[in-house]
Here is the input.
Amino acid sequence: MRAIILLVLSVVTIFSTSCSTHTRRLDHRTIESLGGIALGKARLDTRGHVILPIDCDVSGTRQITTPPTRLDSSLACLPPEVIRKEETIWLTLKTRRTAKGLTSKCPDLDLGKLPPETYLVYYRDPDGSEHPIGVVLTKNLRW
Here is the structure.
């Protein structure tokens, strides 16, 4: 009996460990069901990098752009995938099961050093489809 209990505990531990580290890229429909996504005002950090706040909470407990229709308090938001080509920026949110030091609020984007321009920002689904989410102005940024 003790051997069976130890075996079950080992399987549960292995399963929960593998689930907790699994990263998932979210599609726009899922983001909308969790309350949406919005861009904050870009700023420069002390290194001259453009920092773009992202207002999104993958727990589904806050309305950002749409009323949430789903709750998932076990998700944590990881730094998004970002692609930039000329004056266009695409981002995709990544999540995993929550763990120490992680939260459901999405971290700000570090876009690095960008030339002073107006950038169009799109949410990019894992399948490549795009959804416009805003504009980033870097022409008048000062630190």
